[in-house]
Amino acid sequence: MTTNKNNLTTSWGAPVGDNQNSMTAGSRGPTLIQDVHLLEKLAHFNRERVPERVVHAKGAGAHGYFEVTNDVSAYTKAAFLSEVGKRTPLFARFSTVAGENGSADTVRDPRGFAIKFYTEEGNYDLVGNNTPVFFIRDAIKFPDFIHTQKRDPRTHLKNPTAVWDFWSLSPESLHQVSILMSDRGIPATLRHMHGFGSHTFKWVNAEGDGVWVKYHFKTEQGVKNLSPDVAAKLAGENPDYHTEDLFNAIEKGDLPSWKLYVQIMPLEDADTYRFDPFDVTKVWSQKDYPLIEVGRMVLDRNPENYFAEVEQATFSPGTLVPGIDVSPDKMLQGRLFAYSDAHRYRVGANHQALPINRPRSEVNNYQRDGQMRFDDNGGRSVYYEPNSFSGPTESQENKQAAYPVSGVADSVAYDHNDHYTQAGDLYRLLSKDERTRLVANIVEAMKPVEKEEIKLRQIQHFYKADPEYGTRVADGLGLSVPQQVK
Ligand code: NDP
Questions:
Q1: Is 114 helix (H, G, I), strand (E, B) or coil?
Q2: pTM of this prediction?
Q3: CA-CA distance, 93 to 243, in Å (whole number)?
Q4: Looking at residue 417, what is its pLDDT?
Q5: What angle do CA 97, 470, 198 make, to 5 degrees?
Q6: Which of 9, 41, 230, 276 has its CA 20 to 30 A from that of 337?
Q7: Which residues are catalytic?
Q8: Of all protein residues, whose CA lies closest to atom 29 belonging to ligand 1?
Q9: For ligand 1, what atom is nearest to the CA of residue 218?
Q10: Do 217 and 258 contact (CB within 8 A), yes or no?
Q11: Mean pLDDT in each 10-residue stretch from start to end of the chain (486 residues)?
């Protein structure tokens, strides 16, 4: 017989005779190893999980499009941004950072905000967060930082002492900690939060002229947050609250959307701006570099299959297109390696060829073989370069824009160590009630810290950002602001 879609088959396509009763020696006898359908079922089941992402494990994703609404071709030659009205398909994934796949959605944590644009010049990944800054600014600190966010190796519990120890010894984290502890630390839904590229990138136009750029996705649903009490209740009642909300909204046609804006900085300003523009713990004031509209992102289609489309989606900040380059941001530089490396480990050497990741434009190169090479592997085409057989060749006009560097190779700290002004600006920007809730959230989070020395060190950071901020946290913890900081 020829099998059709109604026939249950093995993975090799042969019809299955019995999918309910394993083959035994006699009706009560032991199971026979010759029931290869049973063996295949059990063996495949054992292999259903790929390693979960070490960070951003719990996520929800959706398909959509980006439409250009303002002409930015003076700043970038990226083809997908080249004209007003142009639409590019995309896939977006939102995530919590610290929890495991399956952990509760409504926790206090930054949210990942990753977008894969399927452009005509290859994929462009913008792998940001729902906050404009980050806790640290050098990738060399990332594994240590994440260890403090994950489970304690002995107790297998979250460890607030480790969290605040690390933060208090890494004062560059203060700005992000203040955002995290504010109302925006627990978004109401994934639809009601902004997104940011966070790092500084470079845009280059058709003339080869560059500018530094920062991305802001502003939610068109409005910013809404959850109170800690409601969030805690939801985490128990429906750990998948955000995942469900995004899916249901799209399913019923209530399509979430974001307006994309950029801040543009002339290259030469980087040397003189009052904050290091490559330091991801800092923002660029919008008074100095106002937001410029670029376009609109709409999510309009749910994945058909979570594993194939969300779990196997691989984003990397190094997936760039002509007209968009990186900056010397040390956190970004580390991520250029770490993200693709994680995907090679987690999904495999040929992860780019999976349907969710595959560019919609042509892929022509001399890379061959590797585990799970499931396309034609380049067929009979020429497999080395240079060659005399008309193989694909580079296009010099798409080289990354050259830029000058100077200095001595060394391990050097950022020389801008003002960790306090912008965290203080944030505190002062908040309403009276928002400040009260921020302080209450911090006090609750710091109470379980085991060493007073850690609490006092952190209180000094809050105090340096704004004396009222530090004093109120100290009061809440029943401590005094250390004299040396006053
Ligand atoms: P602006 O007044 O020009 O911008 C303030 C920014 O803060 C806006 O992007 C606003 O975005 C955002 N904001 C408003 N309320 C809150 C809140 N409760 N929590 C977090 N963000 C909020 O001032 P500056 O650009 O000089 O920045 C002042 C401070 O604002 C910074 O130190 C930083 O902490 C914070 N901020 C700055 C951003 C930037 O890119 N410059 C981005 C986000 C925050 P919206 O009204 O859309 O929410």
A1: strand
A2: 0.97
A3: 11
A4: 84
A5: 35
A6: 276
A7: 56, 129
A8: 426
A9: 47
A10: yes
A11: 91 96 96 97 96 97 98 98 98 98 97 98 98 98 98 98 98 98 98 98 96 98 98 98 98 98 98 96 98 98 98 98 97 97 96 97 96 94 97 92 90 90 98 98 98 98 98 98 89
Cβ-contact 179, 465 below 8 angstroms: no
The residue nearest atom 9 of ligand 1, judged by CA position, is 286
Q: How far is the CA of 478 from the centre of ligand 1 (A)?
A: 31
Residues 6+ apart with CB under 8 A from 235: 104, 105, 106, 107, 241
Q: Which two tokens stand for residue 213?
A: 């750029």
Burial class (CB in 10 A: 0-12, 13-18, 19+), 430: middle
Q: Closest by alpha carbon to 242, among 63, 89, 62, 91?
A: 62
* CA–CA gap between residue 416 and residue 437 (Å, rounded): 30
SS3 breakdown of the chain: % helix, strand, coil, rounded to 5?
35, 15, 50
Q: How far is the CA of 143 from the centre of ligand 1 (A)?
A: 28
Half-sphere exposure of 31 (CA within 13 A, CB side): 8
Per-domain residue ranges for the chain?
36-135+187-398
Counting ligand 1 atoms within 8 A of each CB, the residue from 286, 287, 419, 430 with the most, and so the one to mutate, is 286
pLDDT at residue 401 in the model: 84
Nearest atom in ligand 1 to the alpha carbon of residue 287 is 3
> Residue 188 burial (CB < 10 Å; 0-12/13-18/19+)?
buried
Which residue type is seen at 431?
Answer: S
**In the numeric block, which tokens belong to residue 387?**
């060659």
Ligand 1 center–CA 218 separation, angstroms: 12
Ligand 1 centroid, distance to 34 Cα (angstroms) = 66
Residues with CB under 6 A from ligand 1: 132, 179, 182, 184, 218, 223, 283-287, 422, 425-426, 429-430, 434
Token readout for 255 is 């399509």
Ligand 1 midpoint to CA 426 (Å): 7
Cβ burial 438-467 (10 Å sphere, 16+ → b, else e): bbebbbebbeebeeeebbbbbbbbbbbbbe
**Contact (Cβ atoms closer than 8 angstroms) between residue 139 and residue 334:** yes
Please check whether residue 309 is in contact with residue 61, taking contact to mean a CB–CB distance below 8 angstroms. Answer: yes
Q: Answer whether 187's CB lies under 8 Å from 130's CB.
A: yes
CATH class of 36-135+187-398: mainly beta
